[in-house]
């Protein structure tokens, strides 16, 4: 136990340094402490032959910002360092990253095995791929070895999981899934948005690709829509030359710069998100008008042992059910004063949303029920304010 704590501390010390310095060398940029924003669409070739060689991949050098941009590359190198990957890729949104990875890794006739739930737009994309491109999928709780094995079909080409799952907070044992997938030669893709690499690094557990909606904790300030993916050099290069380049959902240099800036404070922000959420979960659990609390840091959480082993902290998201009906849940939201009603998560401001009518409204009611999303479930993205103020707001709204 002591060794485990020590190694967690060492890892986070290194992480705290890397998140500030990786991907950028000031002395290569006139000593500018802040990274320059290369706000350009295209790059000038010294002569026609050089242009020809660059297009043929025979000469190093930039061509066009949909293919590569120096500021965006700094961010790609940073996420690779943090996720312990060989190579990172940046996209214009989390969904651009999800779609580029999925479309780049499967083909017609393949099957994608998914965790018991996924973000609503990922659900929509999976259905679109099924209807238009003949790529099937199934959702599966992955609680045990036998369950995972039984869900793998001959045509399963990819395993796609969120952990924790949005918004039910259920966890997937990433090491177990990766071990079984290896036996079958199936790659495992993990959407690591809810944890951020500060709390969970799926590649270290044997998974193959990590995806982030960088819009969330990595940005941390609610002012960027962005996505990231990281994995082996071979796979990321394949994606970069196919679905990233040709579908073209790339990130702008300015958004990459905002992310490079926001990410520097990820560890300090995340520690505060985690401690605030832990205090609030305790209060919510005690309140008579709350019927269920879903928070990986709660000792009564069904997968508390797995959370303690797999994650370096519980994260800043709490889902809870309030007693009553959907209308009661909406009345409670409307009575909040400090907490903002908004989708998204990981910002300084505490946000609340109603998954059944917001992030997961596109999911049909029966699928929502199977995922564990009820009409009274609310998702709280705990911000960086004083937790006592957040609790006071929740308490007054519950009493209204
Ligand atoms: C939300 N989520 O939950 P972009 N993966 C996960 C996500 O939660 C999201 C995305 C991908 C929410 C947005 C409104 C686990 C988004 C998609 O929004 O495309 O950056 O990420 O509130």
UniProtKB/TrEMBL annotation:
<dbReference type="GO" id="GO:0018826">
    <property type="term" value="F:methionine gamma-lyase activity"/>
</dbReference>
<protein>
    <recommendedName>
        <fullName>L-methionine gamma-lyase</fullName>
        <ecNumber>4.4.1.11</ecNumber>
    </recommendedName>
</protein>
<dbReference type="InterPro" id="IPR000277">
    <property type="entry name" value="Cys/Met-Metab_PyrdxlP-dep_enz"/>
</dbReference>
<dbReference type="InterPro" id="IPR006237">
    <property type="entry name" value="L-Met_gamma_lys"/>
</dbReference>
<keyword id="KW-0663">Pyridoxal phosphate</keyword>
<dbReference type="InterPro" id="IPR015422">
    <property type="entry name" value="PyrdxlP-dep_Trfase_small"/>
</dbReference>
<dbReference type="InterPro" id="IPR015424">
    <property type="entry name" value="PyrdxlP-dep_Trfase"/>
</dbReference>
<comment type="similarity">
    <text>Belongs to the trans-sulfuration enzymes family. L-methionine gamma-lyase subfamily.</text>
</comment>
<dbReference type="Pfam" id="PF01053">
    <property type="entry name" value="Cys_Met_Meta_PP"/>
</dbReference>
<dbReference type="InterPro" id="IPR015421">
    <property type="entry name" value="PyrdxlP-dep_Trfase_major"/>
</dbReference>
<dbReference type="InterPro" id="IPR054542">
    <property type="entry name" value="Cys_met_metab_PP"/>
</dbReference>
<keyword id="KW-0456">Lyase</keyword>
